């Protein structure tokens, strides 16, 4: 049996061409993935939004109840020295009736 080298060369050449084509395709796919990753949607906050976020965080750190004021009022009530601010109370009521 006689083996012809020309046919073997054609087979080897075809395999090399196929391997090169597959390699090009893989590189193209990797480039596409990298490009898509680089072009992902992005969002950025305006300076005003950043300030609002910072203010919100600061407000969360402030307690809802002013414990010093509550303690002082509680003590005044318990000792009988608390004076109802009648004029201020009346003003608040009148504002409420006017709206």
Which outline best applies? Answer: rod-shaped
Helix content: over 70%
Oligomerization status of the protein chains = single chain
Q: Strand-and-helix sequence, N→C? A: HHHH
Beta-strand segment tally = 0
Return residue spans where pLDDT drops below 50 for at least 5 consecutive residues: none
Tally of helical segments = 4
Q: What structural class results from the helix and strand content?
A: mainly alpha
Q: Which band does the percent of strand residues land in?
A: under 5%
Overall tally of domains: 2
Q: Which helices and strands occur, and which strands form pairs?
A:
Blueprint: H1 5-38, H2 47-61, H3 67-79, H4 86-98
